[in-house]
Amino acid sequence: MIAARKLMQPEVREKMTASILETLSQLPETEKKMFIWKHYCGWPVERIAGVLKCSIAEVDRTLRTINAMLSQQAGRLLT
């Protein structure tokens, strides 16, 4: 609940946004596309894999890795 309260603070949200954007900017282009297509465009993993001509498992694994990185960063900012 403390984390939720912290997220209500504009400066914390700004830091969180900056952290996410910084992480995404450092990703290889293909991984960045995977994340954006999944989380902003709402594409299913199967569609992403088809467009990028890679396996569903690879897309799923990559997205889990990126999400874990972002989750760790969020945790650090909220503690």
Provide an overview of this structure:
The relative contact order is 0.15. This protein has 79 residues and is mainly α. 82% of the residues lie in helices and 0% in strands. The protein has a domain of 27 residues. The radius of gyration is 14 Å and the shape is elongated.
What is the topological layout?
Blueprint: H1 2-7, H2 10-26, H3 29-39, H4 45-52, H5 56-78
TL;DR of this structure?
By secondary structure, this protein is mainly α. Helices cover 82% and strands 0% of the residues.
Structural class by SSE content: mainly alpha
Strand content: under 5%
Looking at the chains present, what oligomeric state does this protein adopt? single chain
The helix content, as a percent range, equals over 70%
Provide a count of the helices.
Answer: 5
Identify the overall geometry.
Answer: elongated
Low-confidence stretches are none
The first-to-last residue Cα distance is 11 Å
- Radius of gyration from the CA trace? 14 Å
| Average pLDDT for all residues | 90
| Main beta sheet strand tally, sense and closure | none
**SSE run:** HHHHH
Number of strands: 0
Search tags:
79 residues, mainly alpha, single chain
